[in-house]
Amino acid sequence: MEEPLGEREWNEARREAELLLQYTLRVDRAWLFAHADDEVAAVLAGQFRCHVSRRAEGEPIAYITGRREFFGLDLVVTPDVLVPRAETELLVEAALERIAHDARARIADLGTGSGAIALALAHERAHARVLATDASAAALAVARANAQRLALGNVEFAQGEWCAALGAGVFDLIVSNPPYIALGDAHLEQGDLRFEPALALSSGADGLDAIRIIARDARRHLAPGGWLLFEHGWDQGAAARGILAALGYAEVATLADLEGRDRVSQARHEDARVMLEQASQ
What are phi and psi of 206, to 5 degrees? Predict the structure, then answer.
């Protein structure tokens, strides 16, 4: 016999049911509550039951509805990209702190997926130029479509693996939400993760291979004093800081999410001339 849902699980199940019903009826939440006692046509009731069944199998709601909100932006989402998650907004917030509102900053988002991070930064910093990259052509197609829908003209796109997609470009800020789950982790076979692109989820035996590559190669593409920021797992903060420190980055730090868990690490690329001057003193 299954255990009854706790309050948190019940509230989440109710919220998801409301989202699926809104999607089925093509209405907003206010309309849904205002017409709570209305009858639903049989064909729509059947569609709703189908959506609920898919969700019960673990398929992410974003793949069922084809949409996801991220940092106030309504994004199209397909199974070709990861579902943008609320915790990733910390990465955007941290990046925005490094860019003045009127700065003509050069920003690169590595592994952009749906474009969530790149488009949020482009939306919040209209004078910046953002390059969104991904190794997947299908993912870039989703990101491009989102940029067009949102009428964001300060975003460009390039296909390639991590920093290889940057060419000879130099940036004031490089951000990424790379894969960071360890290969063979049991969570990859559970819940929503079963439906998301495997290459965008896991990276090496300890989950840190992509982060190592990005941290190593980003230094060649960062302007003096430029910043690298990336998301990682809650238990990878110390390892991330170790990788950055070993590569000679300055001001290495890890930021915690709202639940107090390590979530984003950041570091600054020091001007080599400054480093030489300090060493000679």
Answer: -110, 5
pLDDT tens, 97-150? 999 999 999 999 999 999 999 999 999 999 999 999 999 999 999 999 999 999
Reported as a pLDDT band with limits 50, 70 and 90, residue 14 is confident
Whole-structure pTM value: 0.88
Three-point CA angle 125, 130, 132, nearest 5°: 135
Cβ neighbour number for residue 159 with a 10 Å cutoff: 13
Please, what are the domains in the chain? Answer: 7-57 (no CATH), 80-280 (3.40.50.150)
Provide the 10 A C-beta neighbour count for residue 147: 23
pLDDT (0 to 100) of residue 157: 98
Task: Supply the DSSP symbol for 169.
Answer: -
Helix 7-25 with 42-56: angle, nearest 10 deg: 140
Q: What CA–CA distances, in Å, run from 5 to 17, 19, 55?
A: 15, 19, 16
